Amino acid sequence: MEKSCYNCLKKCNDFPNKEIKCLKLNVIDWLSNVQSPFEYKSNFVEVQFKNDRKDIFINQDNIIINKNDIVTVESKSGIGYDIGIVTLTGDLVRLQIKNKNINLNSLCKKIYRISTQKEINIWKYLRKKENKNLLYAKSIAKNLNLNMKICDAEYQGDGEKIIFYYTSENRIDFRKLIVVLAGYFHTRIEMRQIGYRQEAAKIGGIGTCGRELCCSTWLKNFKSVNINSARYQQLSINIQKITGQCSKLKCCLNYELDGYLSSIKDFPDFNRKIHTVKGIAKCMKIDVFKKKMWFAYIKHPNTWFKIEVEKIKKVIEEEKKKNKICPPLEKLSTNDIQKIELKFKDL
After folding, report:
1. CA–CA dist 258, 177 (Å, integer)
2. Where are the beta strands (DSSP E) in the chain?
3. Would you list the DSSP string of 24-53?
4. CA 327/CA 325 separation, integer angstroms
5. Which of 227, 220, 218 is nearest to 248 (CA)?
6. What does the alpha-carbon distance between residue 247 and residue 200 come to, in Å, rounded to a whole number?
7. Which of 120, 145, 172 is the last residue of a domain?
8. Would 199 be classed as within a structural domain?
9. pLDDT tens per residue, range 220-243
10. How far is 61 from 64, CA to CA, in rounded Å?
């Protein structure tokens, strides 16, 4: 898999001024052929740059812009210009602004024009140099003993600035690094720190599910993932299996968490022990959606009994109110549920 989206650019025979790119973080414009019933027409346009970087611009001059057009836009710093590919136009951009909670007053960057062929050629030339420049920056950072990982490099469309994205756990003094890089590339240098999840989104890859990483295709908001998300879903705490390529807990652990939490509300406390005729028993495992719990005697932890949640609730209530010792687990377990015996053989 190529690191940069624009490494897969190809000429389009039908539209020589347009380019075909991969669909990384692409959105289907389902309102492209639908005429708005309102007189108001949105002048906002969404433009995608390298990898997952997107921004929204104003089309003040009412330039005729279609999806996949290469446009020249105002740079973030206001110095020079940048080049990107149009991903959304029309009313769908307004919905995207609302979805991302962007303040309309903060959207002041403009679209200058449809990029000329000369600007596109310069842009393509700079894109080809980025991987080489990234390797050089990594070597300089290593020689300066900086505890940082430079993961991506991105040229501004006019080549007046290079943005180096890096990850680090501590604060880095990279002033010497900037001096060396600026002297070598003869352009302005910007160091931008990102998180480990953002790094995985920029690089991309294939997850254990066999699909592209969520962060590099559709996921735009990164929520914190707690180890309790795996515990609530009764997953084995195997760090290698529940961590992603960013070395953090997988974002997909949160996808079904709400369903598990709503189902767990009907369960009694897992840490509560019950007193039976044959001894004290504790919960070993639960089945959230089948409403079953496995219990075992503390003296015989290798023998488990599957019992319905409602029966366990009744036993706990009777124990609280009447101080009554409950019957053995064999009687609580239904006939169609087999006893699980775990036997360990000597190696």
Report:
1. 46
2. 10-11, 19-20, 44-48, 54-58, 70-74, 81-88, 111-114, 149-155, 161-167, 188-193, 274-276, 279-287, 292-297, 303-308, 340-341
3. TT----TTTT---SSS----EEEEE-STT-
4. 7
5. 227
6. 9
7. 120
8. no
9. 778 888 898 888 888 888 888 899
10. 9
Residue 75 main-chain phi, psi, to 5 deg: -75, 165
Q: Which tokens hold the place of 233?
A: 């879903």
207 part of a folded domain: no
**Which among 120, 150, 178 is the end of a domain?**
120
Helix (H, G, I), strand (E, B) or coil at 84: strand
- Cα–Cα separations (whole angstroms), residue 321 to 68, 326, 328: 70, 12, 19
Q: Is there a domain that residue 318 lies in?
A: yes
Nearest to 81, CA basis, from 123, 41, 32: 123
Report the distance separating Cα 286 and Cα 312, nearest Å.
Answer: 12
| Residue 190, in any domain of the structure | no
Listed residue (194, 270, 268) closest to 228, CA to CA: 270
Pair 274, 312: CB distance under 8 Å = yes
- The model's pLDDT over 121-135, given as tens digits with 9 standing for 90+, comes to 999 999 999 999 999
Locate tokens 């390797």: which residue? 135
Predicted model pTM: 0.70
Q: Where are the alpha helices (DSSP H) in 70-167?
A: 91-99, 117-143
The amino acid at 298: I
Q: How confident is the model at residue 71 (pLDDT cuts 50, 70, 90)?
A: very high
Q: Which two tokens stand for residue 317?
A: 């209530």
Q: Which two tokens stand for residue 260?
A: 């598990």
Structural domain count of the chain: 2
Structure tokens given for 178:
């900037």
**For residue 36, what are the domain limits?**
5-120
